[in-house]
Amino acid sequence: MTEPLPPLNALRAFEAAARLGSFARAAEDLHVSASAISRFVKLLEGRLGVALFRRLPNGLEVTADGAAYLEEVSAAFLRLRQATQRLRGGGRGLTVGAGPTLAMRWLIPRLAAFHQANPAIDVRISTAIERADPLLPEWTAAIRRGDGAWPGLEAQFLFKAELFPVAAPALARRIKNPDDLSRVRILAAANAPEDWPAWLKAAKLSQIELSSAQSFDYPAFALQAALDGLGVAMARAPFVADDLAAGRLVRLFKRSVYHDRGWYLIFRKGAQNDPALSAFRAWLVRGGSLVSRVAADGQ
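Given the sequence above, the corresponding structure tokens read:
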């Protein structure tokens, strides 16, 4: 006789709690109460006869048994999602999370080339990434900036970005040396507060005042303001390559600094066997290699 499987709701509660590190966050993710998550996990532990978590004062820690089980459960949920998508006629679709600046200024402008080479694969981009989990349940993959370590997930390095100031051609002609930055409007991004200070420190320009800089939510908006001649923005190399090539923006100085963290494609374990994701991953890696070669040539 086939041994009965654990209840699906208990498996979902366990997977969410292990992925998010707390019953409270799992409850938000699944739209139930934290006490319901706790009851489901206890039920599952009772059915399996093993402890899946260590309950700590400041959260949860997955046990060795729990980590091994999580890998299998996550892979099973992934296969279910993929099978459901195929039955719904979704074809070989991917949903990829990406930050607004990367999506607008690097990924989306290049998607036409991917679709031309892979017409059967539909790529949907989600930019609802701020303060989100590294990989939301409805995403196939995400492009994230970090050190390559996302517990429970696979990470494929894509590229690092060099930083340098840019401006529209008319404004750039008025800027002869780095000291001139004190006489123009600085355009900053609230979600990249480290960019300008890192470059100014490398350029030994401590006199440049950033407190009066005009701030935007994302680098993409600061770059658009630079394109419109409003001031000088700090560019991340991959995101201005097209504008530099077309002469819409001008790189002001040769000096650049590199982010210590890179951009990675992250996805669930087992997802690398998905042909659609494999094709998208290979395409991104080629694009990332091109970014690295261009950066090396420009040094």
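Residues 91-160+261-298 form a domain with the D-Maltodextrin-Binding Protein; domain 2 fold (CATH 3.40.190.10). Try to locate this feature in the token string yourself.
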